[in-house]
Amino acid sequence: MTVFASEMMGGYAGERVLVTGGAGFVGSHLCDRLLALGSRVDVLDDLSTGSAANIPLGIGRFIERDVSASDPLPDYDVIFHLACPASPPRYQADPVATFRTAVFGTVRMLEEAWRTGARILIASTSEIYGDPQEHPQKESYWGHVNPIGLRSCYDEGKRAAETVATDYRRKYGIDLRMVRIFNTYGPRMDPFDGRVVSNFIRQGLLGLPLTLYGDGSQTRSFCFVSDLVEGILRLGALPDEPGREAPVNLGNPGEFTIGELADIVEEVLGSSLGRVNHPLPSDDPRRRRPDIARAEHLLGWSPQVPLRQGIALTVENFRGRPEELLSDRNPSSAPRQGAPSR
Ligand SMILES: NC(=O)c1ccc[n+]([C@@H]2O[C@H](COP(=O)([O-])OP(=O)(O)OC[C@H]3O[C@@H](n4cnc5c(N)ncnc54)[C@H](O)[C@@H]3O)[C@@H](O)[C@H]2O)c1
Asked: Primary place of residence (predicted)?
């Protein structure tokens, strides 16, 4: 049996925890682990990109509402703030709502952390590095982001969220943690979220050719969701100390071209699929790879699940949801043939 360091630290047992975005892909896995660690978990989610089916049995309250709403909340010991659409077709469907969620939703949760003294962990993103001119990306890199592009509602929204969170720490001394999450995949991904892993697996299972944007030579790193959640839990369990608020990259440093990913999906499915090439979307980064030295040093963390194994686990999960492969539960916000190579 794997012994996770977060368990050895004994964190979370009996703590009252709020997970915003807990009906989403990452949030639902985080809830599972928190429940297993003995936390009392509530979920706040508006189900805009998540699904009630993802919410684990065993949580306390499900609070269905916009994360920015000012309605009162119970007191918590810990807040994991993940609520925000995360894939380009989803966040671009209503860019103003995305920016509001990223910024006002974060401010709302920071207010709550300040009011109650809860420690708060905020999910930021590798998107804050934009189309990076440094490779791999260290936390000290300030990024290369277009402030007025199609992705800016998300990229700049998350950058502003980091800014305001850091200022709450400076001004009010809240107990803050921030993770910059790089591409994560795994069971319970939305098959129509437009990310490259879900696109390929959905298309492959339906026997369709795989859609490649550009020539498929752009690279990405892919982190399996259990690895990500372990890193989040370890960071959230550390005692508060000066500097703890600085963002930590969490992702898998293994770098693959999109073409290589297509080959792996094909291999796992055991079928030969064609390829269809589409033009690269605007502001699509050419390369993305985390420098995880800070996470390794601070948390003793590094990803454990190899890509091929993670893809096989994800394929198995997708096979168990055949009806979801055929229809998008969020049709207004995602193109059928998927989108950028996230
Ligand atoms: N999955 C990744 O690869 C990745 C990469 C970088 C960052 N992140 C961050 O991790 C977090 C979770 O991402 P995910 O992949 O699980 O996405 P997801 O879309 O599956 O989950 C997001 C959840 O937030 C909820 N939500 C969205 N807007 C809301 C609002 N205004 N009020 C209340 N709930 C709202 C959705 O209904 C959904 O359940 C996000 O903050 C995202 O930016 C994820």
From this structure: Golgi
